[in-house]
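Take a record:
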Amino acid sequence: MKKINLKGMTIEEIETFVNSAGIESYRSRQIFQWMYNKNAVSFNEMTNISKNLRKKLTTLAEIQTLKILRKQESADSGTAKFLFGLPDGEAVESVYIPDQKRRTVCVSSQVGCALGCRFCQTGQMGLKRNLFAWEILDQVLAIERELGVDVTNIVVMGMGEPFQNYENVLRAVELCAHPEGMAIGQRKITISTSGLVPAIRRFTREKRRFKLAVSLNAATDEKRSRLIPINKKYPLAVLLDAVREYLQNSRCRVTFEYVLIAGENDSVEDARRLRRLLKGIRCKINLIPYNPTFPGFRAPDESKTNIFIQELLEFPAPVTLRKSRGSDIDAACGQLFVKNEKCVKIA
């Protein structure tokens, strides 16, 4: 008989399972807390459950975990990149980013990505499959187990387009935020999208309280469509209408991520267009100098970057230049690619 994987289940779903096995309902909450709060990987760790019941659970169910295939640590930032093996032989990468009191994990949502953004390594893999909810949340749990840390923030900005795997991503982050589990605050979890408008509208309708980030990267349809092909389907006017609708129903700012690429989107006029495009939108802008990924693309030099920033100084919203962490281990923005097989945005 195939065992049931309990990781990825809610308390209510675990209760249905234990009831079907003739086990008391209150055990569901204990199992939930052990899996998500105490990071147990086997029923034998659950010391407030009798030995006989633990044995019974072991015959009926399992708690699946990801296997760490490789870990690389940055020499200068404390950033660590993990290659996780999945049960079917595929693999994904995740990044741990420590920064003062924040301990952030950037998780992947898909094996590969179907969107084909020109500057992102993950897009060159193509889409292999969506991750299950447990595979997404166990990236966080596995890093906590390996490093002995309590993660404070999650960004769903790794491999894949999160909103193309909407149900599994939202299930995973809801479980991460559950007060009896990891209890990571919803406002400390950010989901990034390249601009899938129907999913943004659904996210708004469902009144999700997680933060939203949009990978913008250009202020005209011509340039954005060249860099991010999905823009041809959902151009800037349509995308920003969906963002405005989200902001009408949320107290959070939306974050616009803008990867600075020399000769593509880094001119003074690009900065001015960006300022005009986002005028009146409650937001913040994260500028990210391009990380080496493909021949023909490079980051602007420091003086060009500073001129771009100067053009945005009058913009009535926060503008930050994000330092890419982990570029020495290919863990920075746009560098996630499972070669052995990577899109991460790292604060």
User: Anything to note?
Assistant: The radius of gyration is 21 Å. The CA atoms of residues 63 and 243 lie 38 Å apart. Confidence is low (pLDDT under 50) at residues 331-336, 339-347. The chain has two domains: 4-62, 67-329.
